[in-house]
Amino acid sequence: MKHDDILRRARAVGGERPMSHFEITSLAKNNFRVVTVNIYNPYVKDEEVRAFLGRYMDNVSSARHLKDSLGFWNGRRGFQALLREDPKGHGGYLHPPAMFSLGPPFCRRCMAYGHIFASCSTRKCRFCGSEEHEARDCDKPKACHGCGSSAHLWRGCPARQRSYALKTGYRRRWGVFCLGTQPPDFFSKPAAALGRGGVWG
């Protein structure tokens, strides 16, 4: 940028007269940035994100919830802040990481905190809880996530709340088929037998 070039030349001759009588200070804020953070968990508080960004930036503003073209918040938050100077950083500034996670590391294999799946040394099956084999080698029947029974899965659990459409026996309409029904054979029926515009009615 032109401003950076002029500032560099002024500082190069800063020890010589008449510039040695002046203190050179930039009035431009080259380190001002608007940072957009896309958070997939809507329950993460703005203060937690601000505290994280405060490790890399100064004067972090309060969050602004960014909305899409329809006016719905899509999980993105905007922050205004000043980057800290870092001679080793990109452009001479310290930047926050492009991707980060808040909270302690969590392992999906052994369901414990403190490490992640890639560094987990524990062998534990997530279906039966055995430490003798992993989930891909488990030969025991899967259990229902709702009641724990091995006689059925969650989709067939009697304790599961059914939707209104399933309770009323709603089967198919406008090409949408429920589980347990056979889709129609469009080629075995004449075009007049097909409903509105060739869609099974």
From TrEMBL:
Q: Which residues form the CCHC-type domain?
A: 106-122, 124-140, 143-159
Q: Which GO terms describe its molecular function?
A: double-stranded DNA binding; RNA binding; zinc ion binding
Q: Which GO terms describe its biological process?
A: activation of innate immune response
Q: Show the Gene3D superfamilies listed in the entry.
A: Zinc finger, CCHC-type (4.10.60.10)
Source organism superkingdom = Eukaryota
Annotated coiled-coil segments of the chain: none
Q: Which InterPro entries match?
A: RBD_ZCCHC3_2nd (IPR057811), ZCCHC3 (IPR042509), Znf_CCHC (IPR001878), Znf_CCHC_sf (IPR036875)
* Pfam families found in the cross-reference section: RBD_ZCCHC3_2nd
What's this protein's name?
Answer: CCHC-type domain-containing protein
Which organism was this protein described from? Oncorhynchus tshawytscha (Chinook salmon)
